[in-house]
Design a protein that fits this description.
Elements: H1 2-43, H2 52-57, E1 60-67, E2 78-87, E3 90-91, E4 95-104, E5 113-119, H3 122-129, E6 132-134, E7 141-143, H4 156-159, E8 162-168, E9 171-174, E10 177-184, H5 186-193, H6 199-202, H7 213-227
Parallel strand pairs: 7-8
Antiparallel strand pairs: 1-2, 1-5, 2-3, 2-4, 4-10, 5-8, 6-10, 8-9
Helix pairs in contact: 1-5, 1-7
Length: about 230
Amino acid sequence: MKKLFLPLVVLALAAGTFAATEDRDNRAAARVKAASRVLEEIQAAPDTGIPDEVMGSAECVAVVPSMLKGGFVFGARYGRGVASCRTPKGWSDPAFFTVEGGSFGLQIGGQAVDLIMLVMNHKGMENLLASKFKLGADASVAAGPVGRHAAADTDWKMRAQVLSYSRARGIFAGLELNGAVIRVDGDSTREFYGRLQPFSTTLQSASAPTAALPFLQDLAKWARIASK
């Protein structure tokens, strides 16, 4: 009986370990799908979304889906997201990051917030490739313009390396976000790619892993529409 019991225990532990690993993998992949869903929903409401001119000029796009499910006032505490940058071969593999600290320019309350950040120039992209930077210090940040077109508001082309947006309670708006620190999400990177790698590796590679396709395809679609 004891001889039979031991193998069963080993099998149960192995199954539990596999399930836990699978759950972790699913969390990373689920974040990519959630980011894709945020992009789809913003595209579906262009009158109150990101202007085509802005999206067409963005070097990188970063999305934090359902950030901060707890209550807060004038404070962004923590979130996990994915980012992709333009490469000669298309949009890069998704890079997983965390955003910590910082402050919102409005009171949100206890709602979940979708956070979108657009890196607008090469200098901003260099900061992102560094794997850790602080908005407002290492990279200038400003609330992005909202609407179908932004031709009348050319300020956004000169005033910030990063434009930020938020969506809460169904309202999409430019967001003042300063002091937040962006860094590599090591756990999610290992879960998704099987190894830890810096932003500079991920964001300059365009191998298009299968689990990343929903996010990358939405970015490519949005970029095509914005360029017309």
